[in-house]
Amino acid sequence: MTSGYLGLLMLGLIVVAIMMGFPTAFTLMGLGMLFGYVAYFDPTQSMVANRIFDLMVQRTYGGMTNDTLLSIPLFVLMGYVIERAALVDKMFRAVQLSFRRLPAPLAVATLVVCTFWGIASGIVGAVVVLMGVIAMRPMLKAGYDTRLAAGVITAGGTLGILIPPSVMIIVYAAVAGQSVVKLYAAAMVPGFFLAFLYFVYVVGWAIIDPKVAPKLPESEQRMEVPDWLERLTDTFGGNALGAVVRGLFSPARLRAAYPQGEVPGVGRLLGSLGVALGPILISAAVFGGAWWYVVIHNAPEPVQVEAVSASQGLSELASSSAGLQSPAASGVQEPPPATGSASTAGLQEPAAASSVQEPPSAAGSASSAGLQEPPSEGAAAPAAAAAQVEQGLTAPPAVEEQAARAAVPEGFYKWFWGLAAATMLGLAVFYRSFTAENLEIQRLLYSSVMPLALLTVLVLVVILFGITTATESAGVGAAGAFLLAWHSGNFTFEKLKESIYLTAKTTAMVCWLFVGSGLFSAVFALHGGQELIERWLMSMNLTPLQFLMLTQALIFVLGWPLEWTEIIVIFVPIFLPLLAHFQIDPVFFGTLVAVNLQAAFLSPPVAMSAFYLKGVSPPHVTLNQIFAGMMPYMLIVILCMVLMYNFPGMTLWLPEFLYGK
Amino acid sequence: MTIQSFLFAIDRISTTVGKAAAWLLIALTALVCIEVFRRYALNSPSQWGFELSVMMYGALFMLTGAYTLAQDGHVRGDFLYGSMPPRRQAGFDLVLYFLFFFPGIIALLYAGWDYAGSSWAIREHSSITADGPPLYWFKSVIPLAGALVLLQGVAEVVRCVVCLKTGKWPERLKDVEEIDVVKDQLEQSTYVDDDARRAAIENVSSIEEAAHGRLGGAAANQSGGGTK
User: What percent of chain B is helix, strand and coil (3-state, nearest 5)?
Assistant: First the structure.
């Protein structure tokens, strides 16, 4: 049409207008309208018959019927409801007590709670403020280094926009025309991997320099044990599990132990037994699930294992005075990096230990091993590539049963039983010194974390298994959040209204922006702006790596002044058509952008979360200290991106495994 | 009628419509769950379920647009804006409302009117399934939303003028904000010490304000009582 320079002018104007602080959705609409009017201007027509009006209404209607965006209100609603129903400070307390034997337990607990919170909701500001009140002061009081305390809160708080189900990924999916579930699967491993890197950094720092995280005084980390339980363990011996069981079977002795009455009833004892057996039940469920998926359902399924292991790892570490079980387990689990089976085994590993203990090299190499295997032709389950390469020749999947047997990866049984044995060993060690205190910690953990954990695991598993679409699991998730809220008992009608109205406002914000950008980008392309940029980028003869670095650097810089919504909706689409030319998978690109924005949101001096944290911190904490605490996490994110680039399997293996190429 | 009550009157129209539309969320959640149940448990998904849910979503976000504008909830690049004094904010806003907002929204209203009109004229039904639900009411949402946002835009322009005169942003209707969850959570907390809790609950809104005006924290703090 016209020369591309009008398009470039549009792009320049949008940047200026955004900087001037005008609501972006309307800026986009207005610019699109004005420039579109010029582009379509035809002097022979009447003033009001310009075709831009058709374009505008088409784009609006397109936004209104976009079934990808449909899951946004539902996921957002789920987040807001959970935010009001689950008690963060109780969760923090429980997790902190569970990790009390690790170095820097408060910092680790902050990370864990933030990660969990990130799964449930994706709202950054509130999390940082909340954790600032709940975790910052205790850490400072315990003598933690200010930078450590500040860094862990700001970094943990931003994880929510990356870890699925996140709204940002839905918007990217809508912009790029990709499948939401595929993007979720892709963001899964990098998301948890990033959380894991943060964890390694915090614990590593605390080990190298114990001064930054002094041990809490014993009084701070003791869990109150109720009288009846204390008496029970006094009567029946120190092991709480044994005491509960024996108490159940010898009511006479039980009665004798409580001369003043107040004998614990059978119901209470059974409840305690259930709590005490939790780790065993969860381990059994995880292993059973893995067995069912791999052997019966005919494809290895690491996701479920991994998702569940988050909660399982929690509770195990929780109770297990951590050190005991895990080193034992992780010693056994060092996965052989290059065999096909490692791809399953490597990801299953966290099942027995906890997801946080997975050695980083193992994750990278193990999953990339899975990727390198070419998908064999004619396989019934394209996902099970790893196994089929080795067995595909001998077992053509003519009969489904045969295929099922063939799809059990080589070495699965070895790994399965090895891990099961390690877990059992760990559990045995753990239960040998199972005190009444452990029992109470576990009880607190279940009451605070379990409902949320169950819900998030359910939503993720449902998405990743492909049982329902993203929209449907969002709907189920929102309904589940209401159940959870109802269960918690403190969810009033007032809070319901709050969540509904907040969801409505957030949805309107995102979707109007989407409508505006739909018009804007159409007119931008109409003026040849898109083409001009493409030609210009092509003429630079970039290698794919250079292109990636250029775009990511640009997005990183844009992340300073802008919100993720504006970046994803306005700037990312400009690069999307070029991905095919450079042979970059849009799913990979999207995940990279999501991780990248984490770094942008942690970069001084513009990071919002630093200012939120400053607001709730005691006055002696300076902004510079907070920034100093954030910096290393920014570098960790960049390291994570480098690893993602070098091991694309980290991102792409899971979606291909689950949904095929 | 004072200017403030005029502003509140318009705010109230937008807010009432927006909040009413917001309740579609409950219906949407229920509908999606029923659909899931029908598909996976009864194995008989309904014909209209998917389209109806899309329509609910579309109507929901279009009709809450004005409400969101009335609460200053549309995302804006507040990188520089947040640290400007209110008068300069109002000046920029005023110009840009006329430059971008009105052309865009008036076009939306005009184009949407035609679009919905022709849909009404043929009593259009969806053709995705054989016996699709009627589309004309759904398409009418576009001009309706356009009119509501336009009306709210007029209120916003008046706000800018008032702010230019007095140097202070006129009030908005009180509504729930994202940061309010901090208050909710802390009121129920058991492990946070009392002083910290009280301090945080009291300061919540100023924290939000300071975070948005990050570059010139001092300027934003002084202005106080602004829209943020």
Answer: 70, 0, 25
Report the alpha-carbon distance of residue A353 to residue A363 in Å, rounded.
14
How many Å apart are CA A179 and CA A466, to the nearest integer? 11
**What are the backbone angles phi and psi of residue A359, rounded to the nearest 5°?**
-70, 140
Tell me how far apart the 2 most distant CA atoms of chain A are, in Å. Answer: 103
Q: Which residue has the tokens 């024996």?
A: A246
Which residues of chain A make contact with B112, given a CB cutoff of 8 A?
57, 60
> Residues 6 or more apart from A562 whose CB is under 8 A from it?
A18, B77, B79
Residue B25: Cβ within 10 Å count: 24
Summarised one tens digit per residue, pLDDT across range B120-166 is 888 888 777 777 788 888 888 999 999 999 999 999 999 999 999 88
Task: Inspect the interface and report whether the beta carbons of B176 and A497 lie closer than 8 Å.
Answer: yes
H or E segment and range at residue A413: helix A412-432
Q: Which residues does B131 contact at the CB level (< 8 Å), separation at least 6?
A: B47, B125
Closest to A143 measured CA to CA, from A220, A86, A47 = A220
Tell me the three state secondary structure of residue B125. Answer: strand
Taking the C-alpha atoms of residue A115 and residue A616, their distance in angstroms, rounded to an integer, is 21
Q: What is the distance between the alpha carbons of residues A295 and B184, in angstroms, rounded to a whole number?
A: 47
Structure tokens at A271: 């409840």
In a domain, B180, yes or no: no
Average model confidence (pLDDT) for chain A?
75
Instruction: Return d(Cα A577, Cα A277) in angstroms, integer.
Output: 54
**For testing the chain A interface, which of B38, B64, B110 should be mutated: the one with the most A CBs within 10 Å?**
B64
Domain hosting B31: range is: 3-175
Residue bearing tokens 């379990």: A450
**A596 and A172 Cβ atoms separated by less than 8 Å:** no
Question: Which residue of B19, B92, B110 is in closest CB contact with A501?
Answer: B19
What is d(CA A222, CA B125) in angstroms, rounded to the nearest whole number?
66
Which of the 8 DSSP states describes residue A567? I
Residues 6+ apart with CB under 8 A from A230: A436
What residues form DSSP beta bridges with B76?
Answer: A23
Q: Output the CA torsion sign for B175, B176, B182, B187.
A: positive
**Residue B134 bridge partners (DSSP):** B125
ipTM of the complex: 0.90
The pLDDT assigned to A466 comes to 67
* Domain assignment of residue B19, yes or no: yes
Give the helix ranges, DSSP H, for A292-399: 302-319, 325-333, 342-352, 360-372, 385-391
- Pick among A67, A494, A501 to test the B interface (most B CBs inside 10 A): A501
In a domain, B112, yes or no: yes
How far apart CA B145 and CA B21 sit, in angstroms, is: 11
- Our measurement of the distance from residue B103's CA atom to the centroid of its chain's CA atoms, rounded to an integer in Å, reads 20
* Residue A261: per-residue pLDDT: 63
Number of domains in chain B: 1
Comparing C-alpha atoms, which of A456, A588, A568, A478 is closest to residue A164? Answer: A456
Identity of residue A537 = L
Residue B193 lies in a domain: no
* Chain B nearest CA to A611, separation (Å): 5
Q: Is A104 left (phi over 0), alpha (psi -120 to 50) or beta?
A: left
Residues of chain A with pLDDT under 50: 1, 300-406
DSSP state of A134: I
Other beta carbons within 10 angstroms of residue A230's beta carbon come to 13
